[in-house]
């Protein structure tokens, strides 16, 4: 602690006055007491210099410079310091020295302080200016370096990019392109650079391509995206997804155009191929159903005043060719037919397509199809006249054509095709090898396969099916032996339909299984009823029931159990049931397929081979089939309707009967229509017969009556 | 498209910089004529601006010392600018040798200058980054090298938050930083406000406009809004107050009236 009013105390008082004066003018972050402590040594130097034996004004300079170090850089700080020194230094620190000398020294110290302050301030200012300039330079270097490396990265992106990149000026001069773009063009840089963008035209350019380009270079558009083709230097075509963007300078003025392009050549080819495959028939190369529908749809929605003509061709008897000569031959026939059809429809607006197995269509469009479509159908019929030569055989090809012709804009493709299909069937049922013109009334009457197929399931639910029975007569004594159950469909619009109209459809959709089960149930119950009504009074023993089994039912796993169940529930002896299976269903049947039939046969159910003689009757095969009855097809008996009977037919039937009997098989003949026939067949040794001569198929009561007559007569 | 981190904006020293203006207010010469023109223009409206800056520096010094007294040895000073004198590393390394300081600024010139000043100082470094992207700060190599985020840190946001506009989500950025800090960390904030300035608001707005003109707008916030920066932190006594009133070491009569502009406060992470 300084002695009160001693020299040290007086020095501190001077310092306090000084710091109070200067502190507000300083920029220091020190508190005032801290700041004052910094001034103490400065005050001491002034004090000592004031009283030193030899005066040294340089001390004043050092103090002036020290003010700068204490961040008193404001001129005001100097001015206040000098005021303070002038007023108080001699007073507080002069002790008892000679006043005039002290004042003189104080003044010189002040001059020196001012000089020291100015000098230090100039040095500091220059140093700081230098430092900040250096920092700015340094920072610019860092930025430049970063920009440089950024540019290097962008260049790497540009060069290494998988997509093609090119830059051109607004006059279309190509300035720079990357390697990917060069590779796409398959050229060297010289071939691409220096060229003009507008030279890259291609006939496939969409109309808007160059309009968009002009808008962009005029600065009216920022970018556009198109699919565009280019010629490579070697003349091949490069397809691209092209995006062009406008690059503007810092002021927003258009400067360059930037093109990014992706090579889509391969993808495009693949797409074209996929599209071709999706729209063409692999066998014949003709357009397929899909493409035909597209074209037909387009033709039908053409502007007013246009017409269309459609020929729907189905080959007659193609199934027979396929079945007898095999699919390979059938396919070759289709290819040949396709080639011939193609040559029939070569005019613009004409096309030929294959829309199904042996179904073809030819389409003609234009204002004058009324005349043209007939000519087209004629050409098609003519094209089929020359036989097709396959494997050394001359195959005669015939076809039925349904023609639909009319103005566009009235009907949709599905309706037109349906009409053509119906008309084609009309041509077919009229004997084939002809064409028919569609007519609306016939269409309305026509029963289409499609319509029936969709109505089938509901028909079963709505009990639209019923069964008629055709008597089976014992040829030996003319007694009624039983009956064949024949299913009918009482269609709400079309009336009674016979099985050939709907059984193939039911087979196709699988509905045959429930339908077949229903027929079996009904028939078995009916047989049981007949037996109850006249006991064993029938001459030929209990009445039997024959039920047809479709190929589909044969493979159904529930066949045996369903049959047993139905018989048991009705209480009918298995021996009273005969299941009829067509010969073709058993062609090539293996043991697995025969197993259920064998089981049924072992139980006592008779199995009849239906339509015998229509397929490729494999006589050797007969032995291994669990069959007890042969049903001869009506084609054998047709030759016996007249008198005298065809001797060849007689021989054949005789041979078959003899063969059958030697194999322990009974023979039933169908289609007996005259007494002469019946007599002939009896002589030949046939066991049972059915046909119009005895009775047409009819309701169950008719059979009952017949049997009663039979029993009593 | 967002500018990638490795492509810095170019430097245009013909545009005034808030760091260099700040230096000018503090009597430094780390500035160019453009900076001084802007600074003088603002001072036409608010002659006391240098006093506000000085009060900021004085508060920073007291707060840094407070942190050292609390045992904190790691300092993250974001928006450090061009520390003419009395910068954080000078204050804390003299009080606590070995204390670590990382400065952060988005002004490349300020960063270059700090690099020069800090040359040879093993315990201090500077990061070129932006408060608006806290993750770039937290994951910078300098922070990784000098600061252990599992231990308390003093996070200094002195005279910077009022340069972050609402659309840049300053509250979100500060929250992200707060979350990264270990318990016991301190958040040191000063912020400009119309409150406390010994002038009519219209005059202050003149100065605010100068900052708007140099495309570095000054966002004046209310005390309540400024308090939101401390969300989840406990305020250290005496709370959010005018700068001279925060733990003063001398009698307030020494203070210039402009020193009472805006608010200062320190929060502690629980």
TrEMBL record, chain B:
| Sorted UniProt keywords | Methyltransferase, Transferase
One Gene Ontology BP term is:
methylation
Q: Which InterPro entries match?
A: SAM-dependent_MTases_sf, SAM_dep_MeTrfase_SAV2177_type
SUPFAM superfamilies (alphabetical): S-adenosyl-L-methionine-dependent methyltransferases
The source's domain of life comes to Bacteria
Provide the GO MF annotations for this entry.
Answer: methyltransferase activity
**Protein name (record):** SAM-dependent methyltransferase
**CDD domains noted in UniProt:** AdoMet_MTases
Q: Does the keyword Methyltransferase apply?
A: yes
Transferase among keywords: yes
């Amino acid at each position: 602690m300084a002695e009160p009013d001693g020299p040290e105390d007086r020095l501190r008082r001077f310092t306090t006055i000084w710091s109070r004066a200067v502190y507000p003018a300083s920029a220091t972050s020190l508190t005032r007491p801290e700041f004052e402590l910094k001034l103490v040594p400065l005050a001491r130097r002034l004090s000592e210099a004031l009283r030193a034996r030899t005066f040294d004004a340089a001390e004043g300079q050092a103090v002036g410079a020290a003010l700068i170090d204490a961040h008193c850089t404001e001129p005001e700080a100097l001015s206040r310091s000098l005021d303070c020194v002038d007023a108080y230094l001699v007073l507080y620190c002069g002790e008892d020295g000679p006043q005039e000398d002290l004042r003189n020294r104080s003044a010189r110290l002040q001059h020196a302080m001012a000089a020291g302050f100015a000098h230090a301030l100039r040095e500091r200012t220059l140093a700081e200016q230098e430092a900040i300039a250096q920092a700015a330079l340094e920072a610019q270097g860092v930025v430049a370096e970063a920009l440089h490396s950024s540019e290097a990265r962008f260049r790497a992106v540009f060069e290494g990019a998988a997509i093609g990149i090119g830059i051109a000026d607004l006059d279309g001069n190509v300035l720079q392109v990357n390697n990917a773009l060069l590779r796409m063009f398959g050229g060297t840089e010289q071939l691409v650079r220096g060229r003009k963008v507008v030279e890259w035209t291609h006939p496939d350019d969409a109309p808007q391509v160059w309009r968009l380009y002009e808008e962009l270079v005029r600065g009216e558009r920022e970018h556009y995206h198109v699919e565009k083709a280019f010629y490579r230097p070697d003349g091949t075509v490069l397809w691209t997804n092209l995006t062009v963007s406008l690059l503007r300078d810092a002021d927003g003025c258009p400067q360059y155009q930037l093109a990014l392009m992706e090579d889509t050549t391969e993808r495009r080819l693949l797409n074209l191929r996929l599209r071709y495959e999706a729209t063409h028939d692999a066998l014949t190369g003709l357009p397929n159903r899909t493409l035909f529908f597209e074209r037909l749809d387009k033709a039908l929605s053409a502007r007013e005043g246009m017409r269309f003509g459609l020929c729907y061709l189905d080959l007659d008897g193609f199934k027979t060719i396929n079945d007898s000569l095999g699919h390979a031959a059938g396919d070759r026939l289709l290819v040949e037919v396709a080639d011939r059809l193609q040559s029939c429809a070569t005019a613009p607006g004409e096309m030929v397509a294959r829309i199904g197995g042996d179904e073809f269509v030819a389409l003609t469009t234009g204002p004058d199809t009324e005349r043209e479509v007939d000519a087209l159908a004629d050409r098609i019929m003519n094209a089929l006249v020359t036989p097709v030569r396959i494997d050394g055989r001359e195959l005669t090809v015939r076809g039925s054509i349904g023609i639909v012709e009319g103005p566009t804009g009235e009907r949709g493709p599905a309706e037109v095709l349906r009409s053509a299909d119906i008309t084609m069937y009309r041509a077919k049922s009229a004997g084939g090898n002809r064409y028919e013109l569609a007519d609306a009334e016939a269409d309305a009457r026509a029963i289409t396969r499609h319509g029936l197929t969709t109505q089938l399931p509901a028909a079963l639910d709505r009990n639209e099916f019923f069964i008629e029975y055709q008597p089976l007569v014992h040829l030996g004594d003319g007694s009624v032996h039983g009956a064949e159950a024949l299913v009918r469909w009482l269609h709400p619009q079309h009336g009674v339909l016979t099985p050939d109209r709907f059984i193939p459809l039911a087979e196709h959709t699988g509905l045959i299984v429930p339908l077949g089960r229903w027929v079996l149930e009904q028939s078995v119950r009916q047989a049981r009823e007949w037996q109850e009504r006249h006991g064993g009074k029938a001459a030929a023993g209990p009445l039997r029931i024959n039920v047809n089994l479709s190929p589909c039912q044969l493979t159904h796993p529930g066949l045996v159990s369903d049959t047993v169940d139905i018989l048991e529930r009705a209480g009918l002896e298995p021996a009273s049931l005969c299941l009829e299976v067509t010969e073709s269903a058993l062609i090539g049947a293996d043991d697995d397929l025969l197993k259920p039939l064998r089981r049924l046969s072992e139980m006592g159910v008779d199995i009849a081979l239906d339509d015998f003689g229509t397929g490729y009757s494999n006589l050797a095969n007969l032995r291994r089939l669990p069959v007890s009855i042969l049903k001869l097809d009506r084609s054998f008996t047709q030759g016996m309707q007249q008198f005298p009977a065809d001797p060849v037919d007689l021989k054949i039937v005789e041979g078959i009967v003899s063969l059958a009997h030697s194999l322990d098989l009974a023979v039933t003949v169908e289609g007996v229509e005259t007494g002469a026939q019946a007599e002939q067949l009896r002589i030949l040794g046939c066991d049972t017969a059915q046909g119009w001569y005895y009775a047409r198929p009819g309701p169950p009561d008719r059979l009952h009556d017949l049997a009663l007559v039979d029993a009593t007569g | 498209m967002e500018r990638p981190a490795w492509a810095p904006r170019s430097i245009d020293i013909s545009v005034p910089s808030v760091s260099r203006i700040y230096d000018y207010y503090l009597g430094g010469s780390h500035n160019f004529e453009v900076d001084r023109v802007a600074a003088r223009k603002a001072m036409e409206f608010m002659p006391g601006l240098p006093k506000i800056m000085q009060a900021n520096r004085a508060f920073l010094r007291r707060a840094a010392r407070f942190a050292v007294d609390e045992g904190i040895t790691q300092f993250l000073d974001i928006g450090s600018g061009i520390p003419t004198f009395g910068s954080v590393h000078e204050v804390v390394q003299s009080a606590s040798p070995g204390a670590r300081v990382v400065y952060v600024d988005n002004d490349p010139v300020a960063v270059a200058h700090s690099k020069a000043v800090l040359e040879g100082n093993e315990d201090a470094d500077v990061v070129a980054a932006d408060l608006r992207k806290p993750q770039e700060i937290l994951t910078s190599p300098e922070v990784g090298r000098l600061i252990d985020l599992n231990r308390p840190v003093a996070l200094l946001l002195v005279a910077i938050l009022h340069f972050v506009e609402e659309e840049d989500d300053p509250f979100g950025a500060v929250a992200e930083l707060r979350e990264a800090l270990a318990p016991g960390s301190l958040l040191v904030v000063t912020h400009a406000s119309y409150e406390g300035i010994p002038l009519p608001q219209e005059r202050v707005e003149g100065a605010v406009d100068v900052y708007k003109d140099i495309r570095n707008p000054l966002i004046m916030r209310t005390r309540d809004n400024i308090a939101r920066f401390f969300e989840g932190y406990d305020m250290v006594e005496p709370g959010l107050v005018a700068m001279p009133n925060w733990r003063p070491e001398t009698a307030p009569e020494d203070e210039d009236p402009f020193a009472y502009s805006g608010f200062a406060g320190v929060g502690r992470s629980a």
